[in-house]
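User: Some background: our group keeps a shared notebook of sequences we're curious about, and every so often someone picks one and asks for a predicted structure to add to the entry. Today it's my turn. The entry only has the sequence so far, pasted here. Could you supply the structure so I can complete it?
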Amino acid sequence: MNAFSIYKIILDNIISFIFPNHCMLCGILMQSKKIICIECINKLPFKHKDKYIFCKYCGNLLVDDDAKCKCMSNNSYYFDEMKAAFYYDDVMKYIIHQMKFDGRYRICFDIANIISFYYKDYIQEHDIIMSVPLNKIRIRDRGYNQSDIIAQVIAKKFIINFDNKSIKRIKNTKQLSKSKDIVARLDIIKDAFVIDKKYINTLKNKNILLIDDIFTTGTTVNELSKTISKNVNVNKINILAIAKA
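Assistant: Of course. Here's the predicted structure to add to the notebook entry:
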């Protein structure tokens, strides 16, 4: 262990002593650097705990395995499947809002670890993990891309290639959450992404996992998937979102 590592450990211990860590949900004092305590994690609205059948594209509830979701008659999907870890209830809304807009980026590490635990087998089916790129203005204002951090942590944990270079966001779009109109969303996000031709061979014939924070209509991830599939022959593109709104 070098001098810098020793210094960092000492500094972290001093900071933890002066500013003890508390669970962001219940306020209990925590000994670790985690943001959410285990008791509160167990109370989160996990989707996998329900044995319901969901549409693999939009995430809506289906009557049975043979039922065809109405979304399939109105949309063309360029990804193969979408899974969401949580329902987007008031608790998840608070957690994600804090993570995205209040600078609490350390929440990303907790979320990444939770998702990695429950979706271990699914994640390991993929060769490349990506996140949805933010535009430069959003990155500048926020200081980070929350989905990027989560994707990096997951990729490192499973020793899967993390790719944040192949796809760039070239259109500074407004937040899609401010528009519930699907047609308006499509217009806003159209041609927002471009693929860097240098990296096409790294994506060819690969199983790609896109990490997103909130899946609402799927407009953004579908446009991103379209950009990939129109430019390179990949094996499959799947979406793993934090929550389904």
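Suggested note for the entry: The mean pLDDT is 89. The two ends are 46 Å apart (CA to CA).
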